[in-house]
Amino acid sequence: NRVILLDKRPIGTPTLNDFKFIEEEKPTAKNGEILLKALFVSVDPYLRGRMSDAKSYVPPFELHKPISSGMIAEVIASENADFKVGSHVSGLLEWKEFQVSTGKGLNKVDGTKVGLSAYLGILGMTGLTAYLGLTEIGKPKEGETLVVSGAAGAVGSVVGQIGKVLGCRVVGLAGTDEKVEMLKKDFGYDEVINYKTTKDISKAIKNAAPNGVDVYFDNVGGEISDAVLANINNFARVPVCGAISLYNDTEIAKGPRLQPIIVKNSVLMQGFIVSNYAAKFPEAIQKMATWLKDGKLAHQETIVEGFDQIPQAFLDLFEGKNKGKMIVKI
Ligand code: NDP
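A: This is the predicted complex of the input protein with NDP.
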């Protein structure tokens, strides 16, 4: 039974050396327990924060202990009447091929209508983040302009589509021409800027959003966000979802002072953690599932195969190797 431990706390950009593979005996389910076989593992940018020991909204991973993340698993043995052998669950589980659980905190998932991996993306944490961050904080109105950074990722690709459903002009920022094409063709983005090949991002946003920016859904922070905020409108809303461009920094970067822009334009900028909105998850999932069924939402996944590829897939998030949700299939 292979297991992946956090071996070192990464300094700056994480490397494969920060992880360690070990073998342990395959566990057996005892009274009240179930034996789970990992099928799909979610790798997410927020795991970077848990690899450091700085205080955050979730406790850090312990050194030399298994890493955990969102996972879909199959119940392969059950000593718990609530879980049938052959059924599937999602939840926060450890990076192990096999593990036992009491079932506490796990959700049963049904892979017959959508692929099981969808519960790690569009019908899981990243879909909820997109929907709740946009609707609860961004509050887009028909005809407004929504700008999304990290637009081709798991959260961003969903935010833009919801923006279109709600009648916005949607502008995205992404890191490759292939992603730019995908966002326009498959996800209905009106304009997309390749931030890596564009010299003056602020000017490009001005061109793509001639009426200014009413909602900025920020997944990346840093210079991209500075450029978007230079084009912000009066009474704009800025859900601050993530700041991946800064997660590996070892010093706090200095940017332009934003307070005058925020004051002058009466901008509402609010950070959030998706779990703040747990009470709204059922309603949000229902809405997303309906849009998915009606063909109003598409979803994209980058599926990497093999348990041994989990750490590399995580590192690849910081290189922009994924389109849509990055998932490892075991
Ligand atoms: P993504 O699927 O978007 O993957 C990360 C993407 O970020 C990459 O594909 C890459 O795309 C982009 N990226 C990587 N490095 C940089 C950089 N230096 N500058 C700009 N873009 C970069 O991940 P998620 O959708 O899971 O997460 C997106 C953001 O949302 C993250 O910041 C994450 O922490 C946050 N998040 C927050 C949650 C909350 O509750 N607040 C919950 C879930 C996610 P590209 O090729 O375009 O560079």
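The mean pLDDT is 97. The chain is about 25% helix and 25% strand.
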